[in-house]
Amino acid sequence: MSAARIFVRAIVVTDGFARHLDEVFTGLAAQSLAPDALQIVVTGDSEVHLPHATSGEILRVASGSTYNEAVNAAIALHEAVPGEFLWLLHDDTAALPDALAALVTTTRRRPRAAVVGAVQVQWRDSSRLVNVGMTTSRVGARRINLVDDDDINQGQYDARDDVLAVSLAGALVRREVWEAFRGLDSAYGAFGTSLHFCRMAWRAGYDVVIVPGAKIRHSQETLHGHRTATRGGPRTTYAQRRASDWYHALAWARVWWIPFLVLWSFASAAARVVLRVAQNDSRLVWADLAVPWIVLARLPRLLRTRHRIRRVATAPRSVERELLVTARGVVEYARSRYRRERERWRAAAAPNQIVRGELRIAATRRRWSLSFVSVVAAAISVALFGAWLPPLLGGQMLAGAALGVTDISFSDLWQRSTSGWDETGFGAPAVDGTFAALLSPLAAAPGGARVWWGLLLAAAPLLAALSAWFATGAATRSLAVRALSALSYALWPIFLVSVAHGLVGAVVAHLALPWCALGVARAVGWQRGERIGGGEEYPPRRYGSPSASAGAGIALAIAVAAAPVLLVPATGVLVALAVVARRRWFRVVAIAVPAVVISAPGLFAARGLDRAQAWAVIARENGPVLPTPAAQPWELVLGLEPASNTDGWWASPWIVGAVPAVVLLAAIIALLSLRATPATAVGWLAAGSGVAIAVAVQRTVVVYADGSGATDANGWPGAGLSFALVGLLAASSAASAGAWGAGAGLRRAWRRVGAVALLTVTTSAVGIHVVAQAWPGRPAEGDVSATRVDVLPLVAALDQAPPSRSRVMTLTDADGGFTFAISASDGTQVLTGRAGVDADGHPLVRPGIAVATPQSLAGAVAELTVGGGSGATDIAAWGVGVVVATPGSPRAAAALGQSTDLSLIGASELGTSYRILRDGGDISRAWIEAAPDSGVIPLAWSTDGVRAAVTTDGGTLVLAEAADSGWAATFDGVPLARVADERGRVAFTMPAGTGELSATYDDPAYRGWWWAAAATLALAVVASVPIHDRARRGVRP
Amino acid sequence: MWRALASAAAAGGAVAAVLWSADLPVVAPREGSAFTAEVEPRLQDVACPGPVSVPVGDLDSPDPVLGSGADDRTIAVYTRGSTRRAGEGVASDAAIAASVERVGSGDVAGLAAITCTRALSDQWILGGATTIGDSARLVLTNPAAVAVEATVTIYGSLGKDAERVVAIAPFGQGEMLLEGVSPEIAALAVRVQAPGVGIVAAIQDSRLNGFQAAGTDWASAAVPAPDLVVPDVGAVGADSTAVLRLLAPEGAIVSLGLRTPDTDVVWEGVRSLQLEPGLVVDVPIPAVDVGAVTVSGDGPVLASALITVPRVSATVEGALAADIAWVRGQAVDEASLAAVAPGYTAALAVYAPRAGVFQLTTATGRVLVDLQLAADETARVPISVPAGSVLTGTASFAWTLRASDAPGFLTFVEPGRTDADAETVTVGVATYVPLP
Is B12 an interface residue toward A (CB < 8 Å)? Predict the structure, then answer.
């Protein structure tokens, strides 16, 4: 207790434009204890009028002066009085009447206090606290408020006295301390000065005290950015505040920590950027990215700041230690902030009791309907494809003529996707690896692609029904409409045909499109709320969610990866939707971005070609294809074409076309009803474009013969028809929303009769179709069936494994001769995707350049089988080590058995295997030959090429892959020169010596596109995480 | 109103898009084109069935009447290349080879010779009988390194009688006693089908008349053709008989002709013989000294002639023994044939379908026989060359080598091709996904 007289000099700094300035003066005038001196510093030329009761000195300083400069100018005019305290006020701080008295009382009691701060309360509501002291973490890079945001003052902080820092706004600061510290440090800008000042005070041996009884109303103009023109709220000042926090850490940490902290600021910025993308907060993304650079910009001033600290610091660091917050405290602080915001959000969004009851009833009914739909769809799945399930779970795989084999390892798929070299035949450069990437995630799960893609195909009707259920839930909440739409979607005739034939692309597109539609609706906020009594909806107003837009983008990317042609109608429909969405157009257009990036390699490959060929590239099929005869649009829509290959009452047009006809009828009625016009109009546009695309695709050759066994095939109309179906169902379900209760009197009665009739017709159509599909006597539609995993005899499959990785030729009897296939895998793999060739057989990414294909070995095979000539040499030159005569081909087995260039390895139920004899070593995928067709040194083949240590006398390095400019070889780091090989293989001249040999394929353009697509998808995945949208609720970040 | 307009515009746009797409031209996928090549096929090994065996086992007894075996057996396999065993038979990589065997006494006394041929995947043998006293032993020789599964179908005068499947190991032999499968068939024909590398088939026809040998010979395989010539049906001695055996696998109407130098021989009732599919018919041939039988039908037919030469038995007084010889009908084409000289008393029998010069040359190029023949003319010329020489005849003639020996043994060594036609093979590239 000191009896010394405290002299209070109040200083108000203003630029004259502050809106609350009058209240500041009123507050000053109303103080129970008036300040001994009052100075008003005006920066700039504006006029400031003091109210009547206050008398003070008005001082002008240059416009643009900082607070520090203003205060220094003010106190420079007057000599220091012993016991003088500066009461620092801003033009947005209005003290409550007894504030100064409380401050002065505490100041008298605490002689060592350098800063005595007041509690800040909200401007409009003084019961809500804004600032009751601040502290920071041990690292110093996070400013921690010692009070929760908007906490109500119930006296819980009245016992607080010593804190690390108080806000200098409204605080009493000892003048000699101010002058010793030379005021505020200008390096901090507008934020963080109080923390720094108070911490210096502690280190200088003084105390910093908070007085809970003194309250200052603070409207935080600077924080909320009101002083700048943008008026954007706390987010506009976020970058400056974070940069100040980091600067504080740099200033107060030990010297050797500084470089580490700078790096940490960059790392922290990167992590925060991911968080901001997940929160869909694009402005803060840029702010977080800018923070480290602002810190770097302030680094030159760090030296002076630290020098100042060192100059005044007399007390050791232990003084402040118990006032700093530990790491656990920081975590606790962040968690409690998050929890508080969630509670606040939930409380704001919580419905009242009655609504909650109705929602519960609606939820129960909804779950029952969903169960019913799931059961029916699961029954369809089991009835149609249940025969696949026991063999799949028993270790077999699905295989079909179009599907190929499905036992593909994750590493094979990943290798195909990332490297850009397709292994079919003799290899070819690929356009894109999206199809293999699409299959990779399920292949990585335990069990592999065989189990999970087989299960996905078997359960495809069930998954389609679920997708459609959730998607139509955005258009209407009527359970009957949702159930019927879901079952129609699952029973779409061409979809079931796609599954039966194993056309994975069409199936995945069919499953992914409803999720995209759901995402579109939720992105803009078009989704319907749950119906509650009185025709109302809950929630009454729906907001769009940017996470849904990202999710829709991912779904569309999946659909486009599965069926590239969908990019065309999807972008058209999204543009139409963007027009309808008006202000939220950006969210709708952004949905197309991942799909466009994924399709970019194909678009680039198409850009140099003429129209017909470019269309064939855009409509290309990366996965299994099934040629079908071209059909009329109405036949395609009604599911009559592609026709079923079975006979029976279930294949009659009336039965097959029942569901599509009813869907069309519902969509026509929806259009004529003029309800929900934007949705029905866009739905019909989507339907029209989908059907047009389906017809156009079926009339185009999308897969050309590539010399490796694929023949020309026209496109499968399934993807376009799925797109059309999504449009039709969207139109009909959107128009049906609220139709039951709309209108009044006779019109409503007739409308209800019509609705019931339509529902009955639809239900019967769906029911008939369910019965037709599940009919016990109905034979299987396509040719996909479960078969054993081993396709080739074991000895052949062992040759295909590393290190030799040689190829296997299979020989089968055919009319008038034989057919042969060359593969590096166990059976022909179609699911790894196609390389993409044009009509002349040239790869799309190398226009005009022919690559060698197995077709060139036809003459050698004829020689080998019939002629007994030198065919085996040509075949072995391409790395084929084993020839297998397939089971049921006695002529092939006999022909191979008589050849002197082959030696019989063994016969099994998978075929008879013969090894091609070659002097000088086993046959492998790569070797070094000293002279053509003489002694060779086989090389081990790792996953993507040759990486081995070799000792050689020189010669030619030959890789049994089709020659392409993307192959490069180095020997001890020195690139090897390419050599033209008359067979069309990759060959390099090999110098003599010992060293590390490496030969790999690299296509920089492919790699660039792959990384671009991967980054876009990763961003989309992070952005689709539905963290609650804080910005909308005004929570300070 | 705007809503109606928007809906109408959307519907109109959709319908327009669909109608536009319906008018798009159809680009049809091209058919896959397979690679077709003419390839000279690799020549397989030729194979011979080995020595004749006594049907139903050897009864070794010193009694000349009861004993079935014989001590004076001479078998010679004439070939220019290397040989290896194939079961009891011989396989050789030469272009042509022959096996000639003489058994002096016993149940299988006689001369039996057969040209070693290449494996065929579908062949017919007209020869043998399974009536009482007659044994037909089908010998299947596999000269390849692959196992073969052969389907044997037995035909008789009532059509198809039985079918069996035999598996033969690589470089192995399989045999089947046809009288155990289809007994009491007088006119026997056998079809052997072996997919893949094929099989070499021959029937050992051994007949027994009580205790007397009634002849042994090999009947070799042929493929059906519409026009055939049986080159030599000439008699040996006064009592020898000749029977023509005919079979049309799919039915045919055939005309038979007997060409002899003596124009007075008339053959009745053979102008248009209706052959039912699969029925084997035996037609007796008038006895001539030198003659050839021409068979021409409107479908593929097979023909063989059986010549029986009786003799007085050496062991039992007053009993008659005999030897038989089978000569196969040939389709006359442009390929030049070669045969191996059998030794013994050899003669060339030739039939000229068109006028021309027929020359028989040895391997060194020496012209052994030079004949100017008119159309439809037959001739028989004795030849003497060391046994085992390969003799090549002019193309487009039907000829055979007859070997005879005392006391009435007869057999034929029939010519075969030493090369093969170029084969057309179609090779296509395909995928390999085996489905159950």
Answer: no
Partners of B6 on chain A (C-beta within 8 Å) are 677-678, 681
| CATH number of the structural domain spanning residue A125 | 3.90.550.10
> Same domain, yes or no, for A909 and A947?
no
Q: Looking at the structure, tell me whether residues A932 and A884 fall in a common domain.
A: no
Same domain for A39 and A84? yes
In a domain, A784, yes or no: no
Joined tokens for residue A540: 């009454």
Where is B186: in which H helix or E strand?
none
Residue of chain B minimizing CA distance to A635: B22
Judged by a CB distance cut-off of 8 A, whether residue B436 touches chain A is yes
* Among the partner residues B14, B24, B34, nearest to A687 by beta-carbon distance: B14
Judge if A211 and A302 occupy the same domain: yes
DSSP lists the bridge partners of residue B241 as: B308
Helices (H), A701-842: 718-736, 745-774, 794-800
How do strand A128-131 and strand A113-122 relate by DSSP bridges? Answer: antiparallel
Asked whether residue A597 is domain-assigned, the answer is yes
Local mean pLDDT, 10-residue blocks, chain B (436 residues)? 89 94 90 83 88 77 68 87 90 92 88 92 93 93 89 93 94 93 93 89 92 91 93 84 93 89 70 89 87 90 94 82 93 88 90 91 90 90 90 92 89 90 87 88
For residues A20 and A89, the answer to whether their CB atoms sit within 8 Å is no
R_g over Cα of chain A: 38
Task: Classify residue A862: in a domain, yes or no.
Answer: yes
Q: Which residues in chain B have Cβ-Cβ distances shorter than 8 Å to A861?
A: 427
Which residue among B26, B148, B436 places its CB closest to the CB of A699? B26
Do both A172 and A245 map to the same domain?
A: yes
Task: Say how many Å lie between the first and final Cα of chain B, rounded.
Answer: 62
CA proximity to A238, closest of A249, A224, A221, A252: A224
Q: Residue A852 — φ and ψ, nearest 5°?
A: -70, 140
Interface of A with B in 785-824 (CB under 8 A): 785, 787, 791, 810, 812, 814-823
Burial group, residue A820, by CB count within 10 angstroms (0-12, 13-18, 19+): buried
User: Phi first, then psi: what are they for A851, rounded to 5°?
Assistant: -115, 155
Taking an 8 Å cut-off on Cβ atoms, the answer to whether A700 and B435 are in contact is no
Residue A31 CA to residue A332 CA, distance in Å, equals 39
* Contact yes or no for A679/A730 (Cβ under 8 A): yes
The CB density around residue A218, as the number of other CB atoms within 10 Å, is: 24
Q: Between chains, do A677 and B3 touch, taking CB under 8 Å as contact?
A: yes
My answer on whether omega of the bond before A441 falls inside 30° of 0, hence cis, is no
Cα–Cα distance measured from residue A67 to residue A75, given in angstroms and rounded to the nearest whole number: 12
Candidates A934, A938, A968; CA nearest to A952 is A938
A669 plus A719 within the same structural domain? yes
- The answer to whether position A769 is within a domain reads yes
The two tokens of residue A303 are 């030296």
> How many Cβ atoms sit within 10 Å of the Cβ of residue A975?
10
- A881 and A741 housed in the same domain: no
Q: What single-letter amino acid sits at A839?
A: A
3-state SS string for A176-193: HHHHHHCCCCHHHCCCCH
Rounded to whole angstroms, the Cα distance separating A453 from A949 reads 39
Q: Which domain holds residue A71?
A: 7-345
The answer to whether A751 and A739 are in contact (CB under 8 A) is: yes
| Structural Rg of chain B based on CA atoms | 28
Give per-residue pLDDT as tens, A446-491.
989 999 999 999 999 999 999 999 999 999 999 999 999 999 999 9
- For the cut 60, the answer to whether the pLDDT of residue A3 exceeds it is no
The answer on A946 and A894 residing in a single domain is no
Number of structural domains (chain A) is: 4
The full set of domain ranges for chain B reads: 43-426
